[in-house]
Design brief:
InterPro entries: Euk-Arch_PrmC-MTase, Methyltransf_25, SAM-dependent_MTases_sf. The protein is α/β, with parallel strands linked by helices and about 260 residues long. About 25% of the residues lie in helices and about 30% in strands. Bound molecules: S-adenosylmethionine. The site of S-adenosylmethionine has 23 residues, from helix 3 and helix 4.
């Protein structure tokens, strides 16, 4: 993404009362219902086309075809057109199919890592890298956030399109796929907010793709507790697609260490 895009587009920190529809939109049970539905659908493809390319979709992996979020991520990062970036390194945390990571290679990043806690997603990202002949520039890694990466490995861009719906802290995942949808107690978000800025190069950006289906005030609160500042870089309001007509605000935050 260009430096110009990193300027905050909305300065004020979100506060105050939630919108009337927020309870329904942010319901973790509804998200888990979608998780189940997207796995069981008879029309779930094994291969899909997006951005003019074909992609493998493995079982148990987040399906970009049922939600606008993967496409929004590509737009946020300015990856839709080849050659828009002149080298550099890119980490896609929580890569799912690895589509965003592969698009980063097409866009010009020359060292890309696609990483996920879901082993099937790692295999899926590796398959898509192979399908597109990107083996020398895209590495798929199994990792719980940064734990499985090379110690001290840093990137110009660290990006996670997160499981932004808040689940109760005592919720236990019933399948690896559910990890794409909800985060119990925002424990993973808390770790990401702490660790992502430590994994960027001195001029790099640690980015989080969140939405107003998540608990935005809670995210700000946690960032504050972790000594982090959230800068809103971009926002796209989009229709939810397959699962209804709700409008959802997708948010791209840069995470920076708070200055005293
Ligand atoms: C909303 S999905 C996004 C998938 C993909 N980036 C896309 O846009 O299609 C969130 C992803 O984060 C992954 N994830 C959740 N917790 C994680 C963790 N602790 N470490 C790494 N990845 C995680 C999930 O497995 C899932 O693939």
């Amino acid at each position: 993404m260009s430096q110009a895009q990193l300027e905050p587009v909305v300065a004020p920190r979100p506060r105050g009362a939630a919108a009337p529809e927020a309870g329904r939109l942010s319901s973790y049970e509804r998200s888990l219902g979608r998780s189940r539905e997207s796995l069981m659908r008879k029309d779930r493809p094994r291969v899909f086309t997006m951005f003019g390319h074909e992609w493998d979709l493995f079982p148990e992996v987040f399906a970009p075809v049922y939600s606008p979020s993967t496409q929004v991520a590509v737009d946020f990062l300015d990856l839709a057109r080849p050659g828009t970036h002149d080298g550099g390194s890119f980490l896609e945390m929580g890569c799912g199919t690895g589509l965003v990571a592969a698009m980063a290679v097409f866009a010009g990043y020359d060292r890309v890592v696609a990483s996920d806690i879901n082993r099937m997603a790692v295999a899926n990202a590796a398959a898509n890298a192979e399908r597109h002949g990107l083996g020398d520039r895209l590495r798929a890694v199994h990792s719980d956030l940064f734990a499985g990466l090379e110690p001290g490995e840093r990137f110009d861009v660290v990006f996670w399109s997160s499981n932004y719906v808040l689940a109760p802290a005592d919720y236990s995942y019933r399948s690896p796929h559910e990890q794409a949808y909800v985060d119990p107690g925002y424990r993973t978000h808390r770790r990401y907010l702490t660790e992502a800025p430590l994994r960027v190069t001195p001029t790099g950006s640690a980015l989080l793709h969140f939405s107003d289906r998540g608990d935005v005030p809670a995210l700000y609160r946690i960032a504050d507790e972790c000594g982090r500042e959230l800068r809103l870089v971009d926002a796209h309001r989009v229709r939810e697609c397959e699962y209804g007509d709700d409008m959802v605000e997708h948010l791209l935050f840069e995470i920076v260490p708070r200055t005293a």
